[in-house]
Amino acid sequence: xxxxxxxxxxxxVDGEIFLCAGPGTTPPDTAVGTxxxxxxxxxxxxxxxxxxxxxxxxxxxxxxxxxxxxxLVLTPAGAPPRPDGDLVTVxxxxxxxxxxxxxxxxxxxxxxxxxxxxxxxxxxxxPGVAAFQVGPALPDPRIxxxxxxxxxxxxxxxxxxxxxxxxxxxxxxxxxxxxxGDTAWRPIVPASGGAGPSxxxxxxxxxxxxxxxxxxxxxxVYLSRDGGSSxxxxxxxxxxxxxxxTYPFELGDNDVGNAQDAVLRDMTFDPVRPGFVIATGISGxxxxxxxxxxxxxxxxxxxxxxPTSLFYDWLSCERSVYVGTGNRGLLRLHxxxxxxxxxxxxxxxxxxxxxxxxxxxxxxxxxxxxxxxxAEVIVWLDSQPEKAFALRxxxxxxxxxxxxxxxxxxxxxxxxxxVQLDFIRTGCRIGDIVRVIEAS
Length: 440
Fold this sequence. Notes:
440 residues; mainly beta; 3 domains; six-stranded mixed beta sheet; four-stranded antiparallel beta sheet; elongated
């Protein structure tokens, strides 16, 4: 799905989506002139408040994405995706910023061929439904940013008025929430009673966990773990995004909708690791593994670049984050902690307390299909999160040594003593044990 804000559909007003789809599971051909591209028109035109001229009737433009618009409802790990995508957009009606704005969603994007299909009375997906409205009209007509969280079946929606609209008085830079079953939008920023963010310069909702949302306020970064009911001023990311105080939280009149016009520009979340978050801003790229303590991955001053956006590949053997930069460059940072940084086939050592000792029948095996071992003994160490160490008990010349290593592992596990495992890395996060040493 590609924004095509300068393409003209039949109604003559700019604004389309280019939808590319390949056969089966084959990636689509997205080259210029591809036969796999379908042009999806936007909704009927709205009216610009400055000159009352026809204007795009939605927010499918990079300007709004820079302020936090995230068009896709993402698929949680292990859940099936919607076969025709899952997209949300804000539809402007009448004069943009003055007349009601609506939150629309489609899980049948390829079926939309005319702008009137966005004008709908449907309120849920179903057979023959091209697009449907989510909840009541948005609580402020200036709202143009939306993010969804929680997957396809029962998502929570966060919306805000972060983007200035031409000819319209600025809004409060608030955030509102609509959870499953709600019949009205609930304001969460400005925080009730003042114990939290006074405004949202930007906000970032965890797309997999509806209760988690970060807000960049004029005085810093706030985190809510209960969907905006309460807030925590997150000291560690505040130091990261400002470069320990080098850059201000609020850019004032310099914020004109470019990706670089915010001290916190993008955040991405891991669908299977609840505390793993990567963020980028003026000072660089930084991350947390537990949702509390943040560390730098890249410092802008060391690379002489301006990061603007992130894409996180959490499925590959070496998890990576791709960083877009202000000069249209692209960086790949990998492997990401706690992944190993040494190559497969290398002999390494790890020491720690045994947190799991598993013995099972031959042929049972351990691990997912892409990171599998057929060893009979599996060991975890407290110092090696998400890693496993394998010991084979084959009936061959190595059997006596393997049985001795298993006995030492059992004794150390029962007594709570540290061990050192010498191992050869054989998979993404699996190593074959070659020696067991009891460490002091």
